[in-house]
Amino acid sequence: MLAVIKGAQFLLGLNLKQYNITIHLESKTTLNRLQAPLCGSNLTSVAASLVTSLQNDNRVMLEKVKAHNNIIGNEVADKLAKEATIEIAITPDTLGHTPVMIPRTLR
Fold first, then answer.
1. CB burial readout 7-37, b (16+ within 10 A) else e
2. Could you give the angle at the alpha carbon of 86 between the alpha carbons of 43 and 69, nearest 5°?
3. Cβ distance 26 to 65 under 8 Å?
4. pLDDT, position 66
5. Cα–Cα separations (whole angstroms), residue 35 to 25, 78, 80, 81
6. Is residue 45 within 8 Å of residue 39, measured between CB atoms?
7. Do residues 87 and 9 make contact, with C-beta atoms less than 8 angstroms apart?
8. In the predicted model, is pLDDT for residue 68 greater than 90?
9. Is 104 exposed, middle or buried (0-12, 13-18, 19+ CB in 10 A)?
10. pTM, whole model, 2 decimals?
């Protein structure tokens, strides 16, 4: 979910208008939660709100894809996500606030 948030924040920062944007998701759970954000966590609500903001000026599609299926950028995103989990656990507090450092053994 954090990848959706960070990606949407990045795209919103570009002030895109009239683009066709596809967000590829490996997780069916993430896709389902974004489609029914009232049933999810605060993190889900933030992600859904950002995607909705992106949809105000663009056509945004959420698409479930298989993991490790040679989709451009997907392998890089996987690598970066794995590197991030080695050092810290990402919590909602890292969204614009002071990062919360949690030792890997506590997750």
1. bbbebbeeeeeeeebebbbbeeebbebbeeb
2. 75
3. yes
4. 83
5. 12, 23, 25, 23
6. no
7. no
8. no
9. exposed
10. 0.68
